[in-house]
Design goal:
This protein has 376 residues and is an all-beta fold. The protein has two domains: 21-199, no CATH class; 207-368, no CATH class. Helix content is 3%, strand content 49%. It is built from two helices and 22 strands. Strand 7 and strand 8 (143-148) form a beta hairpin. It binds 2-acetamido-2-deoxy-beta-D-glucopyranose (3 copies). One 2-acetamido-2-deoxy-beta-D-glucopyranose binds at residues 32, 34, 64.
Amino acid sequence: MSPFLLLALLGITVPRVQALTCYWGTLASVKNASELPLQWTTSRKHCEEGWSCQEVLMLMENGPQVYVVLIKGCTQAADHEDLITQHRAGPGVSIASYTRVCREDLCNHLSTSLPLWAPHPPTALGSVRCPVCLSAQSCRSAAELTCPAESTHCYSGHLLLSAGNRSTHLRVQGCMSQAGCNLLNGTREIGPISLQETCDSEAMLTCHRGVMLRTSQDLTQKPVTWSANTEQLCNRGEVCQETLLLIDVGLRSLLVGSKGCSKARTQDSQAISIHSGPPGVLVASFARFCTSDKCNSAASSSVLLNSLPRPAAPAPGDLQCPTCLSVFGSCTQNSDTVMCPKGTSHCYQGHIALRGALDNQFFMYHSERKMGKNSM
Ligand SMILES: *[C@@H]1O[C@H](CO)[C@@H](O)[C@H](O)[C@H]1NC(C)=O
Ligand SMILES: *[C@@H]1O[C@H](CO)[C@@H](O)[C@H](O)[C@H]1NC(C)=O
Ligand SMILES: *[C@@H]1O[C@H](CO)[C@@H](O)[C@H](O)[C@H]1NC(C)=O
């Protein structure tokens, strides 16, 4: 007999999963190493039912400076015991993290940087000297310091750290025990923080990154907000892109948007294309490529809507077609039949697969639509 059934027979109700209260706050800041260990207090927040409490502490040490990131809050990530990871061991630049996800009120109660911080015994110095810098701005006035004996190489790179909709660009110069652009040593994520690294100063372009998918009745008329809440560090030769695709079958419309880095060879350019209609099924797109930091910043679908042809309402013809536009589904149950406008001669039915967008994210959708023209 299941324990729940037994409890029910005994007249005991099983309590619902409690919503937790968690410590809540963030800190991301370059500190003088002499200020560590740090202590902090944070505010509290009531989480949604079923969510856990999370805490993440990341320390990046670089000579006299330490970059500290602290994130506390509610999360849907899987619970796990406290975990300390040394992502890049010193001497020289080092990165370590402490992460924990737990399911009790205020269990994310770490209040000092001590688990990750031990004062170092003085290290024997070698003969290599490197500029040492840790800054969200620039490293133009970096001091040159003598490296520890085992650090025989100078590192110079950029990190992009993103969590939720916030990201920080960090310039790093310092001593390392190996050559190359591998400060992160394979680390891509620390809890909710994603990390990217580049040492190619010409590949320093940052772009907005995100995908949007909307279906509604009036997307050809009413502009919708188009924002991307993360950023991406591009590879050498890439540019920023933003693309919107609109498909409208009259009773329903679909809008797909994508922002990110692109390998497109095009430099700065912007284009609106009308692939089909009107009259009949409308398929139109907006595509922009640009080459300055975060330039793919269109904030609304009006960049496309304002350029759509707006013919006067067409007179109805004598053709009737089933109409449906379905993402991730099929059109069998819910096709309404409509009277097609004059100038259309066929009913269109088909599937369109969209591919690309960002990395591995792609959409496929199925549609069966009214008012096909002869070609599409
Ligand atoms: C760090 O703190 C020490 C001692 O408080 C101070 O002497 C030093 O100038 C500080 N360094 C920086 C870079 O602020
Ligand atoms: C790099 O990562 C590997 C495995 O994650 C680890 O064993 C190694 O110690 C790391 N190297 C440094 C220099 O931190
Ligand atoms: C970032 O996300 C937080 C919570 O998820 C939200 O309150 C805030 O408005 C967002 N900020 C921006 C600029 O989107």
